[in-house]
Amino acid sequence: MVENLNILVIDDEEAMRDSCHQILSRSRYNVAVAEDGYKGLELVKDGNFDIVLLDLKMPDISGMEVLKKIKSDTPETIVIVITGYATVESAVEAMKLGAYDFVPKPFTPDELRAIIQRAKERRKLTMENIYLREQLNKYLGMDEIISESEPMIKIKELIRRVGPTDSTILISGESGTGKELVARAIHRYSDRKDKPFVTVDCGSLVENLFESELFGHVKGSFTGAITTRHGKFELANSGTIFFDEIANIGINIQGKLLRAIQEREITKVGSTKTIKVDVRIISATNKDLVKGTSDGTFREDLFYRLSVIPIHLPPLRERRDDIPILANYFLDKYNRKRNKRIKAISEKAMQGLIEYDWPGNVRELQNAIERAVVLAKGNVVEPVDFPCYSPVDRESASMYEVDFTLTSAEREHIIRTLKKCNWNKSKAARLLKIDRKTLRTKMKKYGIELGNNSPHLAKNSP
User: Among residues 88, 92, 94, which one has the least CA distance to residue 66?
Assistant: First the structure.
């Protein structure tokens, strides 16, 4: 993850600063120098240094105080203490304060290069641990894309072809179609497969914190910035960064993201220094970004940067051949997870699954199967084991002949939600997690009409 090290040398001796600068620059490291502790701390404040070589004996402020301040502000920075006045006591104190190593002067160029190489490995491990903490409680593996339908066979072939490239990819499709699963599959087929795959959930981040989340920030850059933080781009360095629901990024951040993609460099919030990053970018959206470029909600230049290779995932209702395969896959998965012994899904129940439109797509099907496995009383899943099959209340059930298909369950659920929202279609759409247009389409499909602030079925409703 750390390729080109940024090293800072803090020493009041000019000869030592120049010597370290020459030795390390020849090894192709980026080296900066500071002649005292205060100037060194000012440089460290930008948060761009991987390793600091720190002299203990300096005027104005001691190396121990500088060490304590660095480890407080940027604890992941590797600090190597160097001194011509080495004692056991000072070495022990420095290590207690977080120093990586303690090197007495004088030292040879080979000794310096060797300790920097060891520190480089430690820095790499530190950054990987930060990434793993970010991913804690998330599922890092990847299930196979379970499908035998013609559209998904073509998509899997496309994944195998584009994976080894570094092309920027835009995955589109409704919520629950498996966009992140496809992104992870692309990463798995790439040369970056052993590097981080970092997800940015664009739908859940507050806009005023988005820049900090992406690019990181330095301590004190805004209220609450008590330490320097690494952004998603740094964590994904040499790997893949995945922007989930990228249409939710505001115009202001879109411009900064475009610059990061074009220049392959970022700047932390509160800093003026740039950091080079090497990442592959994959984005996903459930919205029409072409429409977004025309109505001004999404930058056209960013859209073309992101959609070098577009991949569209069809909704589950357009590949119903996959429903039995997925249903049985999830049945086996939740049998193992819930320690159950459900043998099969009955023919009638499976037919209901196939006929249902699945507005939540594969994610909704997965949740439905998990509920059925938990609630099933026998060793075969029947329609009654799906709560959404059953009438919710007598009022809605009396409106039409009750059957046990998921189609009827969806119609009933829409009526119940409209009632809960006092017949307000906008509120109902939000609660159902669909847009108002989709709700109107479904109401028309099921013959649901609002008259006198109450729902009823049209005469020719299905």
Answer: 94
Are the CB atoms for 121 and 34 separated by under 8 Å? no
* Same fold for the pair 150-312 and 317-389: no
Contact by Cβ (8 Å): 37, 10? yes
pTM, whole model, 2 decimals? 0.61
Single out the residue of 7, 52, 15 nearest to residue 32, CA to CA. 7
What is the second-level CATH architecture of the domain 405-457?
Orthogonal Bundle (1.10)
What letter would DSSP give residue 314?
P
Per-residue pLDDT reduced to its tens digit, 283-312:
999 999 999 999 999 999 999 999 999 999
Class of domain 317-389: mainly alpha
> Is the bond into 196 cis (omega within 30 degrees of 0)?
no
Class of domain 150-312: alpha beta
Nearest partner of 275 among 1, 78, 73, judged by Cα: 1
Domain boundaries, the chain: 6-134, 150-312, 317-389, 405-457
Q: For residue 393, give the 3-state DSSP assignment.
A: coil
Contact in structure between 152 and 145 (CB atoms under 8 Å): yes
**Contact (CB, 8 A) for 233 and 215:** yes
Topology, domain 6-134: Rossmann fold (3.40.50)
Give the tens place of pLDDT for each residue, 204-236.
Answer: 777 778 888 899 888 888 877 778 888 899 999
Cα separation, 53 vs 58, in Å, equals 13
Distance in angstroms (rounded) separating the CA atoms of residues 222 and 218: 9
Strands of the sheet containing 197-201, edge to edge, are 197-201, 240-244, 280-285, 169-172, 309-312
